[in-house]
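Put briefly, the fold is written as integer tokens. The lines below illustrate.
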Amino acid sequence: MTGTADNPLDTRRRKAHFRSWHRGMREVDLILGRFADRRMQTLTDAELEQYEALLEVPDTDFLKWVTGEKPVPASYDTALFREISAGSGG
């Protein structure tokens, strides 16, 4: 540890990355974890805020949105969600 304060954005990214791989439902872990591996370091503050909101969605709802089983609520139907969904094969 260097003794310097972490950049708050970096701290948020690390927490979101960890949560992406530790959701509970393996299918969602794979979708969000792979996305986080690929894109976490390049997310803007606004995108990270959207992503953190997605991390609060229950796995079953999120998976139904990605697979098209249920429509995505307007508040979550963002370019970021569509990027995640497209990358999942859904």
